[in-house]
């Protein structure tokens, strides 16, 4: 009887220690990266960004190029898992991908036996690009715009359906209660950036309630990781477009159109958000021979 009691006591202690170990927070780094037509200036340098970033999960846009899915090619070479939603939209992960959402917009990823996350990755319509149209820059044959209302209407017509479909998927998986991330090149700025304050500072033409990021916030409760970390939109514009200097005869509009959005109750905490790019003051993490025309966004979380 005494030996049986000791065995039970040891078992209880071991189970308790294991539970404590599982309860320790885990760091998770999530990145959004438009790799520019399948690797931009260099596939090797694109892979270098993946590795140098330390990212655990990457939502990739413009994944296809050089006659292959470059994102999956790199993932395979790293021994990572991958999910191809389209020629442009690919998710790669150090951790296993175990399920997809109802409309195949997102995937469920197993971090450990008790912790899971969902991620949705999007490359939204690039034309019209309303910041150009508002600034008198002709692009892809779209009409020029003069008011914020026109800009919102144009953006909604261009991207609203894709955003609506994604949010419907997200609302279903939110019922599971696991953290959810949305990565993407939205080809549209954030309503958190084009504010009256930013317009007064000369950063943007006018205040605009850009609808795509706003829909994820209003309808599904998502927070913008970079703007959560750096709420001062004038001091920290966080430009992701573009890393390529314009030609002397070309007008360019700098903006933040690449995002890592996040949702979670008490099981997730944002600890950092950084811009990855070329060797310039616009990048927090500066990489020599940076290959893309977009800067990437790398956000770090604690999973509890």
List the main descriptive attributes of the protein structure presented here.
single chain, 304 residues, alpha+beta, seven-stranded mixed β-sheet, six-stranded mixed β-sheet
Query: How far apart lie the N and C ends?
Result: 39 Å
The side-by-side strand order for the widest beta sheet comes to: 5-6-2-1-15-13-14
Indicate the proportion of strand residues.
25-35%
- Fraction in helix: 25-40%
What's the β-strand tally?
15
Q: Which stretches are poorly predicted, pLDDT < 50 over at least 5 residues?
A: 7-20
The main sheet comes to: 7 strands, mixed
What would you call the shape? globular
**What class do helices, strands and sheet pairing give?**
alpha+beta
- SS summary, helix count: 9
Whole-number mean pLDDT? 93
- Write the element-wise H/E pattern from the N-terminal end onward: HEHHEEEHEEEEEHHEHHEHEEEE
Radius of gyration from the alpha-carbon trace, in angstroms: 21 Å
Characterization of this structure:
This protein has helices at residues 2-23, 36-39, 43-53, 70-78, 130-134, 148-173, 196-200, 211-220, 225-229, and strands at 26-34, 57-61, 64-65, 68-69, 81-84, 90-93, 97-100, 106-110, 116-123, 180-185, 223-224, 258-263, 268-277, 285-286, 296-303. By secondary structure, the protein is an alpha+beta fold. The strands form 3 sheets. The protein has a 7-stranded mixed β-sheet with strand order 5-6-2-1-15-13-14. Strands 7-8-9-10-12-11 form a 6-stranded mixed β-sheet. A hairpin with a 5-residue loop joins strand 8 (106-110) and strand 9 (116-123). Mean pLDDT is 93; it is low at 7-20.
């Amino acid at each position: 009887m005494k030996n049986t009691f000791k065995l039970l006591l040891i078992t209880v202690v071991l189970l308790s220690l294991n539970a404590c170990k599982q309860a320790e927070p885990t760091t998770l780094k999530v990145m959004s990266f438009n790799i520019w037509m399948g690797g931009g200036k260099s596939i090797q340098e694109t892979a270098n960004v993946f590795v140098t970033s330390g990212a655990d999960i990457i939502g990739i846009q413009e994944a296809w190029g050089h006659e292959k899915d470059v994102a999956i090619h790199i993932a395979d070479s790293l021994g990572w898992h991958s999910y191809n939603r389209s020629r442009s939209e690919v998710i790669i992960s150090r951790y296993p991908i175990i399920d997809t959402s109802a409309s195949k917009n997102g995937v469920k990823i197993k971090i450990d036996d008790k912790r899971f996350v969902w991620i949705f990755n999007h490359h939204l319509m690039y034309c019209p690009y309303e910041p150009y149209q508002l600034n008198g820059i002709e692009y892809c044959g779209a009409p020029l715009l003069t008011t914020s209302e026109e800009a919102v209407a144009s953006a909604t017509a261009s991207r609203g359906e894709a955003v609506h479909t994604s949010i419907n998927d997200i609302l279903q998986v939110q019922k599971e209660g696991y953290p959810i991330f949305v990565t993407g090149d939205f080809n549209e700025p954030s309503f958190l950036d084009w504010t009256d304050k930013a317009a007064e500072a000369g950063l943007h033409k006018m205040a605009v309630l850009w609808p795509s990021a706003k829909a994820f916030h209003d309808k599904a409760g998502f927070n913008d990781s970079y703007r959560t970390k750096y709420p001062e939109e004038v001091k920290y514009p966080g430009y992701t477009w573009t890393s390529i200097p314009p030609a002397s005869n070309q007008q360019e509009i700098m903006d933040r159109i690449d995002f890592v959005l996040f949702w979670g109750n008490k099981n997730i905490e944002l600890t950092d958000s950084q811009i990855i790019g070329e060797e310039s003051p616009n990048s927090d993490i500066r990489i020599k021979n940076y290959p893309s025309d977009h800067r990437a966004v790398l956000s770090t979380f604690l999973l509890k």
